[in-house]
Amino acid sequence: MPASLSAIDAISPAFDRAKRQLFQPFRFAYWARMALVALATGEFYSSSGWGGFHFTMPSSRRSPGYVLLGLVQPHWEYLRRYLPVIILAILFLFVLAFLWAYVGSVFRFILFDSVLTDRCAIKEQWRQWSSQGFRFFIWRICFGFGVMAALGVLAGAAILALVATGAIHNPRQHIVLLVLGGILAFLLLTCLIIAAALIALFAKDFVVPVMALENVGIIDGWKRVIALLGAEKKSYVGYVLMKIVLVVGSTIIFGILTLIAVFLLFIPISIVGVGAYFFAKAQGLLWSFPVIAIGIVLAAIVLAGIFYVTAFISAPAMVFFQAYVIDFLGSRYPALGNRIYAPTPPPAPPSFPDAGVMPAS
């Protein structure tokens, strides 16, 4: 196994590994399956300009104060009519979020295995990694609740401090306290966010490979990773800093490519949508329930297609970053290094006929 690669030295072999898997030769089926992996894990990059939904407030003669009053004091009688639908929608979103988290946890192992072995067989790999993915999913849920609890404690401490000092009732008399408290709260919140981001990064980049290679649980995986971190603190700090730079660069590049692709897709989609609108209007079916239901289903299909195109375009970035993890970690973690730096078997010696045996005439 070669010497440990620095965060900069690991870029070149990771780029070569991604290039071999995606372009030498180009395999459309492999690329398409990796796009599904990108969708499941959320490892796709796009420009934020097209991904958000932009709502424009309708023109109204009512004052802005009336709008704010409507937000503070909503029309409960109107909302009560749709309360069951709202509750079902919220429950559906929660179930969908948990389902995606579970699928993404299993696919995190599939991603590592696919880049390590240069093959992507989703059905087979799902059966192989479902148990480890479930362990990782449980940890992600507990970690998420832990972060939310920490945020709640921070917010609660800030509120209690405001009440105890009387600043919440007489803010003008406690300007200095409010400014200093705000700065302290901001610094604590920033530290919490950075710590949570680092833990999540080390979990998906380092703990997942350890769990996969040694078939251990999340706790044992973290113990091994913490030992690796303690041995080379500066190297892992460099890894984090270099990955930030690489993520920013790849987000810009693939965001531009995605923006162009989505813009080109929106042209035929808009033409079909406008045609369907005028057809439904001419037939008097514009606001009927079947048409609305069909429209929602078609919109969901179109949105899923756009996300898949985004993931397809971003597949090279995802493969590169996973290869970057493999080459960086593999140069200092023997269980992985023995897989990627396994010596090639020597060529078989040439066979010669036995000198003591005369060939048949």
Output the helix-strand order. HHHHHHHHHHHH
Q: Largest beta sheet, briefly?
A: none
Envelope shape: globular
Which regions have little confidence, pLDDT < 50, spanning 5+ residues? Answer: 46-72
| Mean pLDDT value | 80
Distance between the ends: 53 Å
**Helix proportion:** over 70%
Rounded to an integer in angstroms, the radius of gyration calculated over CA atoms is 28 Å
Beta-strand share of residues? under 5%
* Strand segment tally: 0
Question: So how many helices?
Answer: 12
* Helix/strand/pairing category: mainly alpha
Commentary on this structure:
With 361 residues, the chain is mainly alpha-helical. 77% of the residues lie in helices and 0% in strands. The protein contains twelve helices and no strands. It has helices at residues 11-23, 28-41, 48-51, 64-72, 76-81, 83-117, 122-165, 175-214, 218-231, 233-282, 289-330, 334-340. Helix 6 (83-117) packs across helix 7 (122-165). The longest helix has 50 residues, at 233-282. The radius of gyration is 28 Å and the shape is globular.
Would you kindly provide a brief summary of this structure?
With 361 residues, this protein is mainly alpha-helical. Helices cover 77% and strands 0% of the residues.
